[in-house]
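Minutes, project check-in
Item: structure for the 244-residue chain
Input as provided by the requester:
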Amino acid sequence: MKKSILSAMVALFAITSFTSNGEILTSRSFYKEGPRMTWFVRGGVSLNSISGDFVKDFKNSAEARGDKMSFGMKPGFDISAGFQRYFGKKNLYWGAELGIGTRGFSAKYTHDYIEYDSNGNKVEVSEDYKASLSNINVKLPIFIGYCQPIGEHMKIDAHVGPYVSYDFTKSTKDDDNVFNRSYESLEYMADVVGVDAGAAVGIGFWYDHFLIDVTYQKGFIETVNYGGDKGTSSHIMFRIGYGF
């Protein structure tokens, strides 16, 4: 099943790239008018998080016991290769990329309680317990964008579009039984969904053939289904790249 989904995504990217235009421009033709197609590679870090009833219910459950539950971003990575196919002489383009990245989240449970020292005095104690989910996936974004020149070698690149992804590894850490305080452990009870689809919006800055890009992705399919509590993933990616 995993091989079939991965093969389908690779095949779709190959078909999309070849049918867009069989030409690959050299670096000297990158800024020329006429039919234009730019290939690029880019990579960087991603900050992955989760939202939804999964988050709200765990926070409310912790507060009901006088404790605290917080969800944060889990650092990861994102690398990809893709193309931009311009519409004639316009700055408008469409494209696609095939990449490998991560999604997930981090969580911290803070347990506050009172204990007494040897002299019978009250002592306030606060203990933190941490957990996280980190999946590695292959993904295929398809986007439409606009490159606005702002100088001889500079462009602002805005883009938006849908994406699909498939997780081929899963890594959970719940050594201190953070989630056991409400249900069972994250590793054994959470139904981690391996397929995601959503939308992305980003903006980049080109200087000659070099690119700096910031993109936000929001998933529409639940990342986890935990006792009926569902959560969807989101990512903020900071990447650098090079266009050919």
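Outcome recorded: The first helix runs from residue 2 to 20.
No further action items on this chain.
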